[in-house]
Specification:
- The protein is α/β, with parallel strands linked by helices.
- The chain has a domain of 144 residues: HUPs (Rossmann fold, 3-Layer(aba) Sandwich).
- The chain has a five-stranded parallel sheet.
- The two termini are 36 Å apart.
Length: 236
């Protein structure tokens, strides 16, 4: 772990990389990225990983996370952060207070023989298409209207923890990157690459650097004898 000293009066005086952090969603891509770093296949070694707990993930996700943070799996610490619980947010909604909503849904009727996408969640909790299939009969499904919990319950607490670890809490932020954040976005999700909105942080996508798709990640896990991560989605 990097030892972060206090800032000088001028935060730009020594603006160097103080922290290298992996955003861990415990899904396929970020799990593969973390384990590749542990194997020395991606470097330099992260100082830590951060998992944002929404409070309502499936038990299989928590079991997988417990395995990841168990001894002799990852050589760097995993910080678990939280900004609330989706179940609590549902109750707060009735009072009219601001809350991080789980997705709102609408009913969808799909005729037989229609080619439809097969969706899964990526590391940020957003739905992405992983394959397609044809419906054998008319189906009635539920479609997602919007999702707000990604920002409120994932991005915000991770950002807060990164600032704390980098020594940026309650201090004027430097105007140059001092944090490198690794994101588990694969080659088939290249359109989701976005630069950091913070001047003090730069984003990096090691899987895309290696042109690895989600399928490549699964093959890497299988080849090394690691369990495949479960689907990460709030059970609400």
């Amino acid at each position: 772990m990097l030892h972060v000293s206090a800032f000088d009066s001028d935060p730009d005086a020594h603006a160097t990389n103080r922290l290298r952090v992996l955003s861990l969603g415990a899904g396929v891509q970020s799990t593969t990225l973390a384990l590749m770093a542990a194997h020395g296949e991606v470097g330099p070694m992260p100082d830590c990983a951060i998992f944002a707990d929404t409070g309502w993930e499936p038990k299989a996700v928590y079991d997988h996370l417990a395995w990841l943070i168990s001894p002799n799996v990852l050589p760097f610490p995993v910080h678990i952060v939280s900004a609330g619980n989706i179940r609590d947010s549902l109750m707060e909604a009735a009072t009219g207070r601001r809350w991080a909503s789980i997705p709102a849904f609408t009913k969808i009727v799909t005729p037989a023989g229609t080619e439809v996408p097969v969706l899964d969640e990526d590391e940020d909790g957003e739905l992405v298409e992983v394959s397609t299939r044809r419906t054998a009969t008319e189906t009635i499904s539920i479609g997602m209207i919007r999702r707000q919990c990604t920002g409120d319950l994932k991005i915000v607490p991770i950002r807060r923890k990164v600032r704390e670890l980098a020594g940026l809490t309650r201090r004027r932020s430097p105007r140059h990157p001092v944090v490198e954040q690794w994101l588990g976005i694969s080659q088939d999700e290249v359109a989701r690459m976005k630069p950091s909105r913070e001047a003090w942080q730069v984003n990096r996508w090691p899987l895309i650097e290696r042109r690895m798709t989600r399928h490549d990640c699964l093959r890497w896990l299988d080849r090394h004898g690691y369990p495949r991560p479960p689907k990460s989605a709030c059970i609400g």
